[in-house]
Design a protein that fits this description.
MYOD Basic-Helix-Loop-Helix Domain, subunit B, (salmon louse) hypothetical protein, about 0% strand, mainly alpha, about 100 residues
Length: about 100
């Protein structure tokens, strides 16, 4: 029983050291508490998530601009059909139908 607990403690300590090496803000600091390691890990995960959301948002923006450009080119060519395969008049009718009933 004592040997198992000691091994578990050693494993936990090793995992905290490993986590500390991953975190840029405390990687080179000495004597960092376990609580500080956990708090920095939470901050780091939040930062990574924010960066990911920013990248996804930028990609969506680029895709919308590209599809808007395609629609504009189609209208300039006189196709009268947008990127969804609807004529411009059908598209306008869809937009009116999508309005909330409270208006």
């Amino acid at each position: 029983m004592v040997i198992r607990m000691k091994k578990s403690y050693v494993d936990t300590k090793a995992e905290f050291r490993r986590l500390k090496t991953i975190l840029p803000s405390i990687r080179r600091k000495d004597n960092v508490s376990k609580l500080d390691i956990i708090l920095e890990a939470i901050k780091y995960i939040d930062d990574l998530q924010d960066q990911l959301m920013d990248r996804l948002s930028e990609r969506r923006h680029v895709v919308s601009l590209l599809s808007l450009g395609a629609e504009v080119r189609m209208e300039e060519n006189g196709d009268g059909v947008n990127s969804r395969g609807c004529s411009s008049s059908e598209d306008e009718e869809e937009e009116v139908e999508d309005l909330p009933n409270s208006l």
